Automatic annotation (TrEMBL):
Record protein name field: Neprosin PEP catalytic domain-containing protein
Positions of the Neprosin PEP catalytic domain: 141-372
Species of provenance: Quercus lobata
InterPro entries: Glutamic_endopeptidase, Neprosin, Neprosin_propep
PROSITE patterns: NEPROSIN_PEP_CD (PS52045)
Keyword match rRNA processing: no
N-terminal signal peptide: 1-24
Pfam family, one: Neprosin
Keywords: Signal
Keyword Coiled coil in record: no
PANTHER family according to UniProt: PROTEIN, PUTATIVE (DUF239)-RELATED (PTHR31589:SF223), PROTEIN, PUTATIVE (DUF239)-RELATED-RELATED (PTHR31589)
């Protein structure tokens, strides 16, 4: 099996759309229907307990040793790591924000001991995954119907990264068609040798909650409450209350890449599934908007162009990267690129380091519109 190209996407708030829809209905053949049913039997493991969430999807509590990750051929004898064991590292402290934490995951009823929450995959999810997989992850080349507004660290010889972190305020932009993301990522290689892990939140115009996170090969879930594909229950309102999530992707000494939300270790991608990802060439933060073939793109972030008023614009704050020496730092002048491919639709307003409470901060987003293909 070829693991040279590995794109791993961990999104915590999902409403998937599909470019395969016709008047809101995806037409599939009998053969496709049977194939979807076969895949679902393989993906959805027998639960110890099932929980119907208020958002309409089902979370299954699966024996931690029988989760889908261990169907991966490289993880047959994998020993689960319950928590990361990071080496001692230098950290630049960042104070509390004026924003409130967003809530998601199983708030009232955690899975029983020895089990982990896995969002149940549906046929609609699998159909959506097919269209999503060609849109969300490319970070190095121009992709039709996809527009970015990101801050990305420059690739420098002998300078590598083993982590990326930041706090993102969460909005629910009105997305009638397409999909809109706020994300951070670590990335190594390009084109057919691209390895990348991405995390953040998203919303879309299909209003179908779905989850393709479980399809990321080899992700080992360890937390009993927060799971991949969790729906976020409280979001920011322009000129109103602001809510945020703190996210972190970091590699520990044994090569496992951990995904953390507000100091909760959700799980990790084991080193065994990679062959070209001991360190990352670059990291980045920002927004992504995916349109349908008509070229009309959805709003990004809050849907408002960024300015100095963070009460109505989307922002990343306390953004930092961790270098190969284990030190945390942020994007200094002449060390990063601002990538905006459609400035009439989306912008970035980078403020740099603005104090210990906010750290390195920037606003991003915009109303979208006719942004081209």
């Amino acid at each position: 099996m070829d693991f040279e190209r590995m794109i791993l996407i961990v999104v915590l708030c999902l409403c998937l759309t599909s470019i395969y829809q016709v008047n809101g209905t995806r037409i599939i053949s009998k053969e496709e229907e049977l194939e979807l049913e076969r895949q679902l039997k393989l993906i959805n493991k027998p639960p110890v307990k099932s929980i119907q969430t208020e958002f309409g999807h089902i979370v299954d509590c699966i024996d931690i040793n029988k989760q889908l990750a261990f169907d991966h051929p490289m993880l047959k004898d994998h020993k689960i790591q319950e928590r990361p064991h990071f080496s001692k590292r230098t950290t630049k402290n960042v104070g509390l924000s004026r924003n409130r934490p967003s809530m998601f995951g199983l708030q009232q009823d955690a899975c029983p001991s020895g089990t982990v929450p896995i969002r149940r995959t549906t046929k609609a999810d699998l159909i959506a995954i097919r269209s999503m997989s060609n849109n969300i992850y490319p970070q190095t080349t121009k992709v039709p119907n996809m527009h970015r507004a990101v801050i990305q660290m420059r690739t420098i010889e002998n300078h590598r990264y083993i982590g990326v972190k930041g706090n993102i305020n969460v909005y629910n932009p009105v997305v009638k068609e397409g999909s809109s993301y706020a994300e951070m990522y670590v990335m190594n290689g390009a084109d057919e040798k691209l390895n990348s892990i991405t995390t953040g939140w998203m919303t879309d115009g299909a209003q179908k909650t779905g989850c393709f996170n479980i399809r990321c090969p080899g992700f080992v879930q360890v937390d009993k409450r927060v799971y991949l594909g969790s729906a976020i229950s409280n979001v920011s309102i322009p000129n109103g209350p602001q809510f945020e999530i703190g996210l972190y992707i970091s590699k520990e000494e044994d090569g496992n890449w951990w995904v953390t939300k507000d100091d909760i270790n959700i799980g990790y991608f084991p080193a065994a599934i990679f062959n070209n990802f001991t360190e990352a060439e670059t990291v980045g933060w920002g927004g992504l908007a995916v349109s349908l073939p008509n070229g009309i793109s959805p709003p990004m972030g809050s849907g408002i162009f960024p300015d100095d008023n963070y009460s109505h614009t989307s922002q990343f704050r306390a953004i930092q990267y961790r270098n190969s020496s284990g030190e945390l730092d942020g994007p200094h002048e002449n060390t990063y690129d601002t990538i905006i491919d459609s400035p009439d639709c989306y912008l970035i307003d980078f403020h740099g380091y603005i104090g210990e409470h906010e750290g390195y901060t920037f606003g991003f987003g915009g109303p979208g519109g006719d942004c081209g293909i």
